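Priority: low. Protein: 25.3 kDa vesicle transport protein. Input follows.
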Amino acid sequence: MVKLTMVARVTDGLPLAEGLDDGRDLNDAEFYKQQAKAVFKNLTKGHNEASRMSIETGPYVFHYIIEGRVCYLTMCDRAYPKKLAFQYLEDLKNEFERVNGNQIETAARPYAFIKFDTFIQKTKKLYLDTRTQRNLAKLNDELYEVHQIMTRNVQEVLGVGEKLDQVSQMSSRLTSESRIYADKARDLNRQAFIRKWAPVAIVFGVVFLLFWVRKKIW
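Result:
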């Protein structure tokens, strides 16, 4: 059964639409919505390059597809057929592109296409019962395969993003520290050079001065 449905722009993670009735019969609905937003955030950073993926989280699974810089995501029970979940997302994608395609890039506020909820709710009802003739036909459609779509764990997906952030921060810190070290090394080399040659320069200076004074006297 479909539990949550969210649509977001991949370039910046801006939420575009959402199923308004989603999560009413779901414990910890807000927790899973935050996880979905974390997935969107990872996608904006390019941490997950797959255009289709399933992500296991507790008793549920997130499924998403990315098309035209938009991510269509749903969360279903683990027992819900993967094939139906992705066909549900395909239906949403086709309608969203048809109705809002030329406005996606210019949308500036969250949930600019909130009216799309009407189509989400109508389509969700069609996929509610997996035993209807319509859905059984979709399950038996050999032309639509989902076996190649990767399934991962949510901790793994979000953890990768966190680790990459840490690596990036560490890299920036090391670069900054290496610059500071290089500057200090140059200062130390300069000081060592001065300490080494300053006495020689002073001696030569004194000799030259004495020679000049003596020449002036004579």
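DSSP finds five helices and six strands in the chain. Residues 43 and 99 are 24 Å apart (CA to CA).
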